[in-house]
Write a structure and sequence with these properties.
- The complex is a heterodimer of chains A (about 525) and B (about 375).
- By secondary structure, chain A is an alpha/beta fold.
- Helices cover about 35% and strands about 25% of the residues of chain A.
- In chain A, the strands form five sheets. Chain A has a six-stranded mixed sheet, with helices on both faces.
- In chain A, helix 4 packs across helix 5 and helix 13 crosses helix 14.
- The C terminus of chain B is likely disordered.
- The longest helix of chain B has 27 residues.
- The relative contact order of chain B is 0.20.
- Chain B has two domains: about 325 residues, ABC transporter involved in vitamin B12 uptake, BtuC (Orthogonal Bundle); about 55 residues, no CATH class.
- Chain B is mainly α and about 375 residues long.
- The chains are: A alpha/beta (about 525), B mainly alpha (about 375).
- The interface between A and B is large, with 42 and 31 residues.
């Protein structure tokens, strides 16, 4: 019989009105990397909350058997004492504290009378950082390092707690391909050293690459556990388990009817950082998008894509912005966001929770927010009209919700994303900028969002799609621009673009720069 | 709607009923004497009016305006001073309101466009305007003798020949008319909702709500008829409350306050300028404070340098007791009114019972704390926070 480090047996967890977990079983062998996959809302995070004690013993039914004994975790500390550490999707680091301070937060290195031993703190932090390949000094502030490195700090923090079973909830959702690869390779290295890991991710290529076994959850139930000894499992096979149907094509086909008319164009667009005003984030960028065209923007994080999009959208980012912006061939000077919306521009943010939606407000009110004029007369709202409009979008986009009066914060990520898209479609833009439109959402919802994008270009609108997932850009776009460190590094048509070409465009730019230095 | 949902939705209304019944019994029924019922709202006119403005400030993100008590005093002081030197009522009112408009523009601009933290900006205003009021009053108490000024705010609607002090049938007639208008509004609203294919809820529930509201209006008007009739100040209060209830619930302008408080970044990217929203919140707040200064000065009949002290706290407490979120983004005018009336009932009940001032503060504090704890805990349970 296999040596299981963890067995979760018949776990059932009920929220008021919803069964989040229904008789779920999970078995993790010692020393393996176990992937937990499933659509958003399938119950992955809830299951891990049960494991870590965030959902304390007594609020669920079923047994957790860890290292052969039944455990009853009442709080996070209980599970951490046993060597189970969960790293959540939203990082729990404090920006204003140093790496070392964060690493030992709540677990401080101190002497007998409670004074913190700073040399031990910084020394031990440095050691843990070495293990995850972080070269920074442990006295650097968290806010001064990128998301990728913050993720590594979290892992180093887990290591400092003497972790036996590491749980990573979507560790790579905000990392670019390079950083993701590095993180996964590190996991494989830790596996060699005997650590067990559970990884939750939506990126199936990562699952195939790193996982020894894969458990699929769907609608709160365990569907199956697959072996992946050769690390070559077919992604379609996983998808089939996740959605319960085969998605014959991950990218819906569309008739490519790109008009000759240019919907949007920018020339020599230069943007400087809003705070560090001498730092140039976008340098003389020129690009265009035709009516009926999906144009992709690829690049690593920090390439200046989001900054470009936001500065074009009514100067909502940056300082000392120069350059020319054309809508339908007419040069425009967009003073603010309102002006941009008025000119038929829309920008759906990459960070729906922070910049996109009012989580404490209803679907209906979020949907109409960018163009309240459409549901009001002389400034007086017509709530009937608003409700009907919101309902139409919920129906058209298959947003899963009991009602349009539901708070957006209560929806799953994919459904929140649909509300965000609905909000911008409601504003009736001619040019729609989508920044990471499928970040952190499941395969089924992704497909539906692709369909919505296709529908929009079929109506003759222009879509600019910023994405860190190359397959998605290749599957959806008519043309792809590649950016690197604030500069345009290449442009490919759909026919000529391949993952290798795009990656090499990014890398060649890097090499050229290094050569120049 | 099951009992749990009902209780959650109408917690403060239920609390109000319980407190009201409690004090009615405690005071041996004196709380429901016509004179006391009539005075309940008038005594709290300043709270009811200023809470409307305070709600806007709180909606933008839990921000408050600490200067309103002083602004109220300055407005009243200017009016009293001008009337005292023989200016007509119209001039006094216009000058007072104009000064509150200037204060509103200044604070709104500093907070909205210069990004001075509201707490600090209005704290400065609190000292500044309190001091200015005393300067205007030369640290004296000024009585208001101007009849037309007093009548404009403190008289009662009485039809000569029909009404007399203890028996004013006109109040009952007005009450019935209002009750009918409310009923018609209910039915039209429901018809509209159904015509648009939206869910209108159960008919029985609507009817029950309507019957209760109409019954309250009739009972209230009967009480008013037994004591001097409908007070003019009630009309002023209702005008402000209804306008603000309408603006916050049914206009694009009102929606902006909720949006900024809910997520300022998302609001900005939706083409709404948060700076303007802050400006208007503090502008309207100051204007209402100035207006309350007129109401309060007329009701007291004189103004001294300490008028309005800690009134800002009453307005803030009403908002939070009435269910406004301390983080902004949620809260309604009707809810805030319930909060204000709840405070008023407690104050009046305790005064009639004969409890001293000190104890009123203790009870106010406890009620505020309990209301907020309840709000936070119940939201936590439903997974909102």
């Amino acid at each position: 019989m296999a040596d299981y480090i963890l067995e979760m047996k018949n776990i059932t967890k009920t929220w008021p009105g919803v069964k989040a977990l229904d008789d779920v079983n999970l078995q993790v062998e010692r020393g393996e990397i176990h992937a937990l996959v499933g659509e958003n809302g399938a119950g992955k995070s809830t299951l891990m909350n049960v494991l870590s004690g965030i959902i304390p013993f007594g609020e669920y039914t079923g047994d957790i058997v860890y290292n052969g004994k039944t455990c009853q975790f009442g709080k996070i500390k209980d599970s951490e004492n046993e060597g189970i550490v969960v790293i959540h999707q939203e990082l729990a680091l404090i920006p204003e504290l140093t790496i070392a301070e964060n690493m030992f937060l709540g677990n401080e290195r101190k002497n007998k009378i409670g004074k913190i031993d700073w040399s031990m703190t910084y020394g031990q932090a440095q050691e843990a950082m070495k293990r995850v390949g972080l070269k920074e000094s442990s006295s650097v502030l968290i806010k001064d390092i990128g998301t990728g490195k913050q993720q590594l700090v979290e892992i180093a923090k887990a290591l400092s707690k003497n972790v036996k079973l590491l749980v990573l909830d979507e560790p790579t959702s905000s990392l670019n391909e390079e950083d993701s690869k590095m993180l996964l390779d590190m996991l494989l290295r830790f596996k060699e050293e005997g650590m067990t890991a559970i990884i939750i991710t939506h990126k199936l290529n990562e699952v195939a690459y790193v996982a020894d076994r894969i458990t699929v959850l769907r609608d709160g139930s365990t569907i199956e556990t697959m072996d992946n000894p050769e690390h070559n499992i077919d992604e379609e096979r996983i998808i089939k388990g996740m959605v319960g149907r085969e998605i014959s094509n991950r990218y819906p086909s569309r008739e490519h009817k790109v008009s000759d008319e240019v919907a949007f164009e920018c020339k020599d667009w230069t943007v400087y950082h809003p705070v560090y005003t001498e730092k140039c984030v976008d340098n003389k960028i020129s690009f265009n998008v035709h009516k009926g065209e999906v144009v992709g923007f690829s690049g690593l994080q920090g390439a200046g894509r989001t900054e470009l999009a936001m500065s074009l959208f009514g100067k909502s980012y940056g300082s000392h912005i120069t350059g020319h912006e054309f809508i339908n061939g007419q040069e425009v000077n967009l003073k603010n966001e309102r002006d941009a919306i008025g000119h038929g521009l829309a920008y759906a943010t990459e960070d729906r929770k922070v910049n996109g939606l009012i989580l404490s407000d209803t679907i209906a009110r979020n949907t109409t927010m960018a163009k309240l004029a459409k549901v009001s007369k002389n400034g007086i709202l017509d709530s009937q009209l608003e409700h009907r409009a919101a309902q139409e979008y919920v129906d058209a986009m298959h947003t899963k919700t009991p009602s349009i009066d539901q708070m957006v914060g209560n929806l799953s990520g994919g459904n929140q994303q649909k509300v965000l898209l609905a909000k911008w479609m409601f504003a009736e833009p001619e040019v729609l900028i989508l920044d990471e439109p499928t970040r952190g959402i499941d395969v089924g919802a992704k497909y539906e969002i692709y369909c919505i994008i296709n529908e929009m270009v079929a109506q003759g609108k222009a879509v600019i799609m910023i994405s860190s997932e190359l397959p998605e850009l290749l599957g959806m776009c008519d043309r792809i621009y590649v950016m690197n460190e604030g500069e345009m590094a290449g442009e490919f048509t759909a026919e000529e673009a391949t993952q290798e070409k795009i990656m090499s465009a990014i890398l060649s730019k890097n090499r050229a720069q290094q050569g120049g230095n | 709607m099951n009992a749990k949902v009902f209780i959650k939705k109408y917690t403060m209304v239920i609390a109000l009923v319980i407190v009201f019944v409690f004090f009615t019994i405690l005071t041996g029924g004196r709380l429901v004497l016509a004179q006391n019922v009539s005075n309940l709202l008038l005594q709290n006119a300043y709270v009811l009016v200023m809470a409307c403005g305070m709600l806007l400030c709180i909606l933008t993100g839990g921000n408050v305006d600490l200067s309103v008590g002083s602004t109220l005093c300055l407005s009243g002081a200017l009016a009293a001073k001008l009337l005292n030197i023989g200016q007509p009522a119209g001039v006094a009112i216009l000058v007072s309101l104009a000064v509150s408009v200037v204060i509103g523009i200044a604070q709104g601009y500093l907070i909205g466009y210069i990004h001075i933290p509201p707490f600090i900006c209005t704290l400065a205003g609190m000292f500044l305007f309190r001091g200015l009021s005393r300067v205007v009053l030369s640290s004296k108490t000024i009585s208001i003798m101007n009849e037309s000024y007093l009548n404009l705010f403190t008289s009662y609607i009485q039809i000569p020949g029909v009404d007399e002090n203890q028996n004013c049938p006109s109040a009952i007639v007005i009450g019935i008319v209002v009750a009918v208008i409310v009923a018609i509004a209910f039915f039209i609203g429901r018809k509209n909702t159904i015509a648009h294919g939206n869910d209108a809820g159960s008919f029985a529930a609507m009817l029950a709500k309507l019957v209760i509201i109409d019954a309250l209006i009739i009972i209230y008007s009967v009480k008013l008829s037994q004591y001097k009739g409908v007070p003019v100040m009630l009309i002023w209060i209702l005008a402000v409350v209804l306008i603000f209830a309408f603006v916050t619930s049914s206009t694009v302008f009102g929606r902006y306050f909720y949006a900024v408080g809910g997520n300022e970044k998302a609001t900005k990217l939706s083409g709404i300028d948060p700076r303007r929203v802050y400006f208007w919140a503090y502008f309207l707040m100051s204007f209402l404070a100035g207006f309350s200064g007129l109401l309060q000065s007329a009701r007291i009949g004189s103004v001294d340098g300490s008028m309005g002290t800690s009134f800002e706290m009453d307005a803030i407490a009403s908002c939070f007791i009435g269910g406004a979120s301390a983080y902004g983004g949620s809260g309604t005018v009707p809810g805030v009114m319930v909060g204000a009336i709840l405070l008023g009932v407690i104050n009046q009940g305790m005064s009639i019972y004969g409890l001293s001032d000190q104890w009123q503060y203790v009870v106010k504090g406890a009620v505020l704390l309990i209301a907020v704890i309840f709000d936070v805990v119940s939201n936590h349970k439903t997974g909102k926070s």
